[in-house]
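Key idea: predict the complex, not the pieces.
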Amino acid sequence: MLWEPPVGVVVAEVVIVGGESEAGELVAMSIRALIEAKPNAVLGLATGSTPLPVYSALARSLAEEPLDVSQVHGFALDEYVGLPEGHPESYRAVITREVVGPLGLTPENIHVPNGATDTIQTAGADYEQAIAEAGGIDIQILGIGRTGHLGFNEPGSSFASTTRIKTLAEKTRVDNARFFDSPESVPMHCITQGLGTILRARHLVLLAFGEAKAGAIAAAVEGSISASQPGSAIQLHPHVTVLVDEAAASALTNLAYYRYAWANKPAWQAI
Ligand code: PGA
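Result:
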């Protein structure tokens, strides 16, 4: 079995938001409610530009109304292989800078796959074990690449895959070159949670903004389930929330229904 059914509300919904900050607020409030109910909640942390409004909204909320987050655990989705320790664009550094610091999380509770080459053979299994020992991921924040990747699961990734090494698609290296000097400086390899790992999280929250993501979102939400479209793995999960702006939603065909369902969402139902 790829995932265990979550306890509680089970929904799949697409929410078309007015902009990134509205999406950030909605997800931040959901994470806040989770931590209030479960102080040792386990967060699945995405990097890239997309999730930043979530982290900033949550940081603002925690500053305004403090909450004990000392027992919260976090697991990053992925990491580059072979960057020198402390490299500012390693996802360990990004998570520390964008998430751990602003939210005041306990650094020892935050895990990132180990991209060091000398231990890479066992790093995937070690990461899966750490997630299991923490009790599994409660809420997994996800972005999506133009290739359709979730984490760094490029097209062709098995839906049963666990944390392992992948080769980045050329398109992904071009997209991530903005964080490095050139596409060639973006590492060729990464270590990423597998699609099977992601599907085991209890709640998936996928965010996407901008027209460049419209095709990947349409394929993930409404396309055929296929390893060629890794994002389509979300259709196998019982509790998914997709938050998109108008541009990222523009290639969806069932838009009227998503708007109607959101407008008529039961008051008792969280995202
Ligand atoms: P982005 O990356 O949020 O920086 O667009 C998303 C992804 O590659 O998964």
